[in-house]
Design brief:
448 residues, mainly alpha, 83% helix
Length: 448
């Protein structure tokens, strides 16, 4: 593995490339396999299958949120500890994070499985969609512990200076899922159950790869049995540091449920299916931006911990420029090929027309997303979860919620699509202001 000290020595542009490229590759592959999943479900099960997966999506977001609560919190603390040359403390954080992930996964899955059908109905599942949503969610929940470990602790591999290994675990999992999906859906005739089963098996492989890494000679950080005993104070720090990412996911889940409820009212199940496609396309557009942010985080965290504030500022500036360039490119692609994109998922005319219109409107402010995401991840990287949480909540709750409750009354389905870009605009303005203030404070020795 690379010596973590290179984070204070290499050129920022080179570091950003070295750390971001594997993250972007891994995230893009994951986004692509989610899209491939939807394509197989759309053609193998139909619009009702797409609607079922969309209905179940808020549950998956909640699970991911708890995974990030531990994974992102641990990664932030570990990056700072490595920058402070405190390897043993970083390893203790890693051990505690693993146990916390397992406990949370088992507990949450048991709760969701107990009340699954009532939850799905509240999320907008109509009688004809409910059986499909139930089958899909039940399998995903049964294997959630693999997602917690594979997804949550993957970022730690990147933070310790092994971005390529972090990428490899995601790529292997994604490629396996892409192969298993058509095999299970079409070859074995398992339908939507096959899609969920392929996802769980792929996540299990990712979890095994992540665990294997920390027990290998390539890892800077190691598992130690003594660190598997939860330290309450340390666990509280991990959860505090990950709270921004967690509440962002919880808010996203709430908003997804509200979207589904409104879409049923103003557009029916076809509108829900269209939203499922839009979510996956927007995810694909934003994954490179998140990858740049993930590549920036260990650079910022290490240099912030070491007091190298000029390098922190340079990393944020260059990450923002790169993220904005990616966002503008994605915007041009979406606006120019909207109908062709939706046709990949379904041949049903109603879904194509509705989805293309929604896609163009919903991603109208995509060029601004780069600053919004990088700014929020910057505050996470320097151990300021309050500011990061505020920025996350500003988009999901403070701005989007009032818009969703207001605009559809005037413009119906179009009002639902418009709420997204207007929320992005407001959140970007707030992010830019807070980021400017914080960067100006990063002067002199010590932490600001």
């Amino acid at each position: 593995m690379e010596n973590p000290n290179v984070l204070s020595e290499k050129k920022i542009s080179r570091l950003l490339w070295d750390f971001s490229l594997p993250a972007i590759t891994g995230l893009l592959v994951n986004a692509l396999y989610n899209i491939v999943d939807s394509i197989f479900v759309g053609h193998g099960v139909g619009a009702i299958g797409l609607a079922a997966v969309t209905i179940a999506f808020p549950i998956m977001i909640i699970l991911m949120g708890f995974g990030m609560l531990v994974g992102v919190g641990a990664t932030t603390l570990i990056s700072i500890r490595i920058g402070q040359q405190k390897q043993q403390e970083a390893e203790k954080i890693l051990g505690n994070a693993l146990i916390l992930s397992i406990v949370l996964a088992v507990t949450l899955s048991a709760i969701f499985l107990t009340f699954l059908d009532p939850i799905l109905i509240r999320l907008g599942a109509e009688p004809e969609v409910l059986p499909y949503a139930h089958d899909f969610s039940r399998i995903i929940l049964s294997g959630s512990v693999f997602m917690f470990i594979g997804f949550g602790l993957n970022n730690v591999i990147r933070a310790e200076g092994n971005p390529r290994i972090a990428m490899l675990t995601m790529v292997v999992s994604a490629l396996l899922n892409t192969v298993l999906n058509p095999l299970f859906i079409f070859g074995l005739g398992l339908g939507i159950k096959g899609s969920a089963l392929a996802t769980v098996l792929s996540q299990a492989v990712a979890a095994c790869l992540v665990l294997g890494h920390f027990m290998s000679s390539t890892s800077y950080l190691k598992f130690h049995r003594a660190n598997f005993i939860i330290d309450k104070a340390l666990a509280a720090k991990i959860l505090t540091m990950g709270s921004s990412a967690f509440f962002m996911q919880v808010a996203a889940s709430m908003m997804a449920g509200l979207f589904n409820h409104l879409l049923v009212i103003y557009g029916g199940q076809v509108a829900i299916a269209a939203m499922g496609v839009i979510n996956r396309v927007s995810m694909l557009m934003m994954m490179p931006i998140f990858g740049i942010g993930q590549g920036m985080q260990p650079i910022v965290g290490f240099n912030y911990g070491a007091g190298n504030y000029d390098r922190v500022k340079e990393a944020v500036k260059k990450a923002t420029i790169a993220a904005t360039a990616v966002a503008v490119t994605g915007f041009i692609f979406v606006e120019g090929f909207d109908h062709y994109i939706i046709r990949l998922f379904s041949s049903e005319t109603d879904l194509i027309v509705l989805g293309a219109a929604g896609l163009k409107i919903f991603l109208l402010m995509l060029p601004l997303i780069g600053l919004q995401i990088i700014g929020s991840m910057f505050f996470q990287a320097i151990g300021k979860p309050t500011q990061s949480l505020l920025l996350s909540m500003s988009r999901q709750i403070l701005i989007l919620l009032p818009l969703l409750l207001t605009l559809p009354h005037f413009w119906g389905l179009t009002g639902i699509w418009l709420a997204g870009p207007l929320a992005d605009l407001g959140a970007t303005i707030l992010t830019g202001l807070l980021l400017y203030i914080q960067l100006r404070r990063l002067t002199g020795p010590g932490r600001s």
